[in-house]
Design a protein that fits this description.
Length: 183
């Protein structure tokens, strides 16, 4: 991928249209589901690994730090959660079933060239920095948490190259400094 592609916003999509997401604007879709979809190749008799997931978002009411918490199987291009709950760190606003937004602005997001860079939460940012600082020939042997594997595989190759890797690490560290106190 060339610098020209990065400025155009090329690279892997962050989310898809299923939840009216706009990947170049930093929106992430959250679909409440009653049952988690099974990945291809996983039989119904196999146990699906379910984990407690957190997504850092901006509160639609006051634009401060908020969190969506629920049980899910993995951060995919659309995050599907069982019983998602929203909590704002400042105001007491909460979505009701009638006005619950289908899309949320990601709290930790920025642009590198024209490519949107985002982190689901604080742990994702730390893992992203570790991933980028690992030499490319060792990335396959290093084990990263399973929740983030799909997100790591979707990073544009141009950003992972040595030419832009330092800029990416700088951007993620800048996003880490935007973390509110007490979170």
């Amino acid at each position: 991928m060339s610098l020209k592609d990065l400025h155009r916003g090329g690279g892997a999509l962050l989310v898809n249209e299923e939840a009216t997401s706009a990947p170049r604007s930093g929106w992430v879709g959250v679909l409440p589901v009653e049952e988690l979809p099974r990945p291809e190749g996983v039989a119904e008799t196999d146990d699906l690994h379910i984990e407690h997931l957190e997504i850092a978002v901006q509160c639609p009411n006051c634009t401060n730090y908020g969190r969506i918490v629920g049980d899910g199987s993995e951060y995919r291009n659309i995050t599907k959660l069982l019983d998602p709950r929203f909590a704002c760190s400042v105001c007491s606003w909460g979505p009701t079933p009638g006005d619950s937004p289908e899309k949320w602005q990601v709290y930790y997001s920025g642009r590198l060239g024209g490519t949107m860079v985002f982190a689901m939460n604080e742990e994702h940012m730390a893992i992203l920095v570790e991933y980028l600082e690992t030499p490319p020939n060792r990335r396959n042997t290093t084990i990263y948490p399973w929740e983030y594997r799909a997100l790591m595989g979707r990073l544009p190759r141009g950003i992972l190259s040595g030419r832009y890797r330092n800029d990416m690490v700088s951007l993620v560290k800048k996003l880490q400094r935007t973390r509110p106190h007490g979170v």
